[in-house]
Automatic annotation (TrEMBL):
<comment type="similarity">
    <text>Belongs to the inositol monophosphatase superfamily.</text>
</comment>
<feature type="binding site">
    <location>
        <position position="103"/>
    </location>
    <ligand>
        <name>Mg(2+)</name>
    </ligand>
</feature>
<dbReference type="GO" id="GO:0000103">
    <property type="term" value="P:sulfate assimilation"/>
</dbReference>
<feature type="binding site">
    <location>
        <position position="106"/>
    </location>
    <ligand>
        <name>Mg(2+)</name>
    </ligand>
</feature>
<dbReference type="GO" id="GO:0046872">
    <property type="term" value="F:metal ion binding"/>
</dbReference>
<dbReference type="InterPro" id="IPR000760">
    <property type="entry name" value="Inositol_monophosphatase-like"/>
</dbReference>
<dbReference type="InterPro" id="IPR051090">
    <property type="entry name" value="Inositol_monoP_superfamily"/>
</dbReference>
<keyword id="KW-0378">Hydrolase</keyword>
<keyword id="KW-0479">Metal-binding</keyword>
<dbReference type="Pfam" id="PF00459">
    <property type="entry name" value="Inositol_P"/>
</dbReference>
<feature type="binding site">
    <location>
        <position position="105"/>
    </location>
    <ligand>
        <name>Mg(2+)</name>
    </ligand>
</feature>
<protein>
    <submittedName>
        <fullName>Inositol monophosphatase/fructose-1,6-bisphosphatase family protein</fullName>
    </submittedName>
</protein>
<keyword id="KW-0460">Magnesium</keyword>
<dbReference type="GO" id="GO:0008441">
    <property type="term" value="F:3'(2'),5'-bisphosphate nucleotidase activity"/>
</dbReference>
<feature type="binding site">
    <location>
        <position position="231"/>
    </location>
    <ligand>
        <name>Mg(2+)</name>
    </ligand>
</feature>
<feature type="binding site">
    <location>
        <position position="76"/>
    </location>
    <ligand>
        <name>Mg(2+)</name>
    </ligand>
</feature>
């Protein structure tokens, strides 16, 4: 048992369990049953819930409690979990008192509709900033990984962390993805970019984009009204580590995590370069 594990020790210890979770998600996708929608869901993406969400979170909770029993942990399905009461806290702590967060299936609606673009996202948060984020693509048996100040890496899920390689420079498609409730930004951007807004453009398609598609070159930018710690904010941190421009909706740097409420930022704008970012900001404002 490690008393005060480093972010790398946390990710390394949980990697075997995340491999199991990815295999489970991949195997069950074609036969998974949907649970009743989340009461708090405000759109078709946040409302979806499956057996996979609950089961994967339970698996990772057991792994954390058995390996790092004194860790703070916040999982998306904490209200439905039988393990929440056994963690020291689900809240952010003081500096260097890390909080592990988990989105067991990021893109549950995509998952239910047979898309490959769902993720498992595990993060290690400090009071001021993320220390580490690992995003796993079960369908592709791969992952992206970043530690604070170390850039972004990609790897084969079957291999350990020391085998992953830096994200390669890629040419991006001129496509922008707008989160739910931002459809009004589409007209001023349409003349220059191919714009997809989740609220009106979503179709059940195997390759419908997710914010993480910036790392594969399929997106040049994205914006969201609400950057949740467990998913879009974690992907924004990875984007910043990859050298992309990341701000709030008025162009200011994102505030420390401890300054946020309800485990989320009030909006995030991400551009692969300053021109794209400025175009997005101009549309927002």
């Amino acid at each position: 048992m490690v008393i005060n594990p480093s972010p790398r020790e946390i990710i390394t210890a949980l990697l075997p369990h995340l491999r199991v979770a990815a295999g489970y998600a991949r195997h069950l996708q074609s036969q998974i049953n949907s649970l009743p929608d989340k009461d708090a869901g405000d759109n078709l993406f946040t409302a979806a819930l499956t057996d996979a969400d609950i089961s994967i979170q339970t698996l990772i909770e057991v792994a954390i409690l058995g390996t790092f029993p004194n860790m703070r942990f916040y999982g998306e399905e904490y209200e439905k979990s039988h393990n929440t009461k056994y963690f020291r806290s689900i809240e952010l702590g003081e500096q260097d008192d890390y909080l592990i967060t988990l989105d067991p299936i990021d893109g549950t609606k995509l998952y239910l509709d047979g898309s490959d673009n769902y993720l498992i996202i595990l993060s290690v948060l400090n009071a001021d900033e993320y220390e580490a984020v690992m995003t796993i693509s079960p369908a592709n048996n791969s992952y992206w990984l970043t530690f604070r100040g170390e850039g972004i890496y990609q790897g084969d899920l079957d291999k350990d962390l020391d085998a992953c390689t830096p994200l390669k420079a890629i040419d991006h498609q001129p496509t922008i993805l707008l989160g739910w409730g931002l459809a009004s930004l589409k007209p001023p951007l349409d003349k220059k970019y191919h714009v997809i807004d989740l609220e009106h453009s979503y179709i059940p398609d195997k390759n419908f984009p997710n914010y993480k598609n910036m790392f594969s070159g399929d997106l040049i930018g994205w914006a969201t009204k609400r950057g949740k710690f467990i998913d879009s904010a974690a992907l924004a941190f990875m984007a910043k580590e990859a050298g992309y421009i990341v701000t709030d909706l008025v162009g200011l740097p994102l505030v420390p995590l401890s300054s946020c409420e309800n485990y989320s930022y009030e909006g995030i704008v991400v551009g692969v370069n300053r021109e794209v970012h400025q175009d997005l900001l101009a549309a927002v404002n």
